[in-house]
Amino acid sequence: MPDGAEQSTKRDDERLQVGDWLVEPALNQLSTAGKTTKLEPKAMALLCYLADRSGQVVTREALLAAIWPGVVVGDDSLTQAVIKLRKALGDVADAPTYIQTIPKRGYRLVATVVRPDAAAVASASGDSEPSRPERKWRVRWLAPVAVTALLVAAAAAWWIKGESTSGVSSTAPPSVDAEAMRAAQPTVSIRPFAVLGDDAQAVVLARGISADLLTDLLKVYGLSVITEPASSASAVSESGREALPRHSASSLIPQPSSLVRYVVSGSVQRVDDRLRLNVHLTDAQTGKQLWSERFDRTLSDLFAVQEELGRKILQMVPVKVSEAELRRVAQPHTRNLQAYEYFQRGQMALLVRQQAENESAREMFRRAIELDPSFARAYAGLALTYAADYRNQWTSDGAAALERAFELAGTAHQINPDIRETYWVLGFVHLERRQHKEALEHLETAIRLYPSYADAYALVGGINAYIGQPAIALSLLRTAMRLNPDAGYLYFLILGRAYFGLGDLEQARLNLEHALLRNPVNVEARVYMAASQALAGNKAAAAWEAEEIRALQPRFSRSAWLATHPLTDAKVQKKLAIALAELGFE
């Protein structure tokens, strides 16, 4: 059939009446009483999806998956589409006649939906099945969801068989069943604890308490744990989650409001040698405070307080916890308060990702180990400082730095193999050594032991992007960002690399911009941004990025950088090499 005829048929078949408006999806057009309004494609897709489910509550997650299939976007994208749709329809959120917001859940189309072409067919045939246009709409808008499910299932089967074009077994995205199981689990969100007063030690303690509580609850099977967005720059993790002001939060970050049932929040204050900790557990759906307690102890009792805290929260959440799990939750990382403070300061310095701070972090971790030689997490942090030296070419002997990182990561894991960070660091160091199979094995173990470990999903996604499986990387990053809505620069860098591998330069640049907003001194993000701009023909922007690379690393070398980059996808390597050569890098 000629294109024009096909288009005409689509226009006739796809018309429907929603309230007072005649909707013509093929034209992205609404009309009523001589008035015509154009809709953006996503807003029209949203309207049609809701119209197919008129009167039903459709969750935000279902809408995100259906309207943006295969693309990682967040709640803000959906919110903006709803706002535009309401504006076009002349609807008011507070007194809706078209789209009703269902708090904590999603949206519902409340207007009457009539399909003019369907009514006569249904009446004449007496067929109880949906009419042809209605079936067509259902097929059309359910197709992305079905395709996504099939891709996930195919990826899972591929993973089980261990088949890979690069010869490396990678982790497939969580299966539909796994996602359903996680959705059915009680979900707890840990908010970074606030600091009362202007006290540097209290800042360190607040960061440590909320981070350790997150780590402890991750050990419990049957409990889904989500990190809520940080409200201060002190809230960071091994993925580099530098907090942003609220007005700068990216629309790509899925917000957890509709997923979370229980929220843990608190405040920390230090008064002389005493620690005052206020903790609250709230039902996010009802707003009711389920439990609250004030701890007023000496600083030396910090670890005892942490043990109590985990147990008391678990008593209030509907999840079965074995005695073995309770022992795991209560397991302290160190009993030395000074070592604990050095470790937290090291973490904060490490995540700045600059050479001076990296050396400061190394000194903090060393001091922690001197005070507590069995402090596994401090060894893991120390390993990352040497891995950073290798990756960023901050040392003249990169091979020795990487070998030292490998030794320290192994030591951390030998001391305590029941800590999530030791698996993550081993995975990261193996990645730097281009031992992707070994890296994935450690990270898969971390995910099995800690099913809500967002950073592990993110790093597995990064490895998949490196080995030529960018589509799998996108699915894994979607999971990671659901578990950690306060996504750091590393998450967006991985997304940028994945889209670059897929050849989607626009999405690559968008995500790399978000990565650089969070960490403007990251050379890898600059390299991929420069290459994306160059391949897109944006010469001026590419040249500017090249100058930024030279400012960050005056001796930057294309060949040296590619030699230490853990990328093994030959096609992407070639694209990077050509783009960097065009920008004058030897």
How would you portray this structure in words?
The chain has 586 residues and is an alpha+beta fold. Among the domains are: 3-140, Arc Repressor Mutant, subunit A (Orthogonal Bundle), CATH 1.10.10.10; 494-586, Tetratricopeptide repeat domain (Serine Threonine Protein Phosphatase 5, Tetratricopeptide repeat, Alpha Horseshoe). The chain has helices spanning 3-13, 41-51, 60-67, 75-89, 116-125, 132-161, 176-184, 200-217, 302-316, 323-329, 337-350, 355-371, 376-391, 398-415, 420-432, 436-449, 454-466, 470-483, 489-502, 505-518, 523-535, 539-552, 558-564, 570-582; strands spanning 16-18, 21-24, 29-32, 35-38, 57-59, 99-102, 106-109, 113-114, 187-190, 194-195, 224-227, 262-271, 274-283, 289-298. Strands 9, 10, 11, 12, 13 and 14 form a 6-stranded mixed beta sheet that branches. The chain has a 5-stranded antiparallel beta sheet with strand order 4-3-2-1-8. The radius of gyration is 26 Å and the shape is globular.
